[in-house]
Automatic annotation (TrEMBL):
Domain Gfo/Idh/MocA-like oxidoreductase N-terminal: 37-146
Organism whose genome encodes this protein: Lentinula lateritia
Coiled coil regions in record: none
Name the UniProt record assigns to this protein: NAD-binding Rossmann fold oxidoreductase
InterPro entries: Gal80p-like_C, Gfo/Idh/MocA-like_OxRdtase_N, Gfo/Idh/MocA_oxidrdct_glycsds, NAD(P)-bd_dom_sf
Xref: Pfam families: Gal80p_C-like (PF22685), GFO_IDH_MocA (PF01408)
Residue ranges constituting the Gal80p-like C-terminal domain according to the UniProt record: 154-295
Keywords per UniProt: Oxidoreductase
UniProt cross-references to SUPFAM superfamilies, sorted A to Z: Glyceraldehyde-3-phosphate dehydrogenase-like, C-terminal domain (SSF55347), NAD(P)-binding Rossmann-fold domains (SSF51735)
Amino acid sequence: MAQESKSPIQLGFIGLSATGWATVALAPPLFEEPLSSKYSLVAVSTSKPESAAASAAKYSELASQSTGTSVTVKPYHGSAKHIASDMNVGMVAIAVKVLDHKEVASEVIKAGKDLFIEWPAGVRLVETKELYEAAKAKGIRTMIGFQSRFTAYALKAKEIIENGDLGKILSSTFIVSLTGFWGRLMPANYDYTLSSSNGATMLDIPGGHALDMFTHILGPISSLSAIIKNQFPLTTLTDSDGNPTSRTVPNDSPNQVCVTGTLANGALFTVHFQSPVKEADFNWIINGENGVLRIVDESDRTTKRGFFDATPDVYLNGEKVVVDADNSTRRTGLNWQAFANGDVSQYADLEQALKVKEILEAIVRSSEDGRRVEIQ
């Protein structure tokens, strides 16, 4: 049962600087109703004092405007323990590089504060498991930045399936092709994603987001067989304008991921992630005994990355279904709202993050061992 917070959640934010995902998509919904009545940003933390001061000034003004009262957001920098130990902070949001997830989140958990952390919530399964176990021992609430389950098309698909319009689910085919990343070229500031040991590959990041959405709608995966392949062992880094530099680095991250298997409900599934391609693709078909759901993006595929900016249409038995307008801030806003309302059936926590990591590890293990893997 949902347990809505009766007073605003006092939020501290690590990694909320002048630019980046947190500034563009995570923070803006917090300053608009209904979230401005459910959350109160009280502190920010960045790596340097100058950026912390600038961020605090910016969000003090935004918070004051949204509430109609004078609000002062505290600036912190350096170690996460500073903001985590602030007695006025009840929850801490983390939006930093995956390589820093465990260190930063551990300080928050030690302080006994509720936690929001962006996916992938630690490097590989081992770090996510350590964070999950620590948070469980402390009894704190956690939320993961799995915003894809809140896309308009995902919400509509879940509604249709739960209404029984398709009947028993028989199979699902999900194909996502991405442009730009994890190939011959890669932006220099993302070079860390080319090493599979850093847990930020195509499979880890977009693959993890997609598999959370996939299983949130269709249910758990019970077994799978997979083939993953790296077709670009050397990658040239590009500058801020997208031009190739003289720097070429090793790349051991997969750019092809093909998975087949069974869902817990007995349905069969196929998933194919690939990058880079000239034209992005997003094509998801869900077949049931009584109908078929087709979710496909038929817009200009040369200008899209293929998953995070997909705006697919939804068709039920060939008829187009009306879906709500969609954008990244709407999705993150719905995630924040589900947490504030205590709707644990809608938002993902560290336990769900652990389940997705177990799927990702099973995919790698299946490909390496050449065998089918059962998932508990």
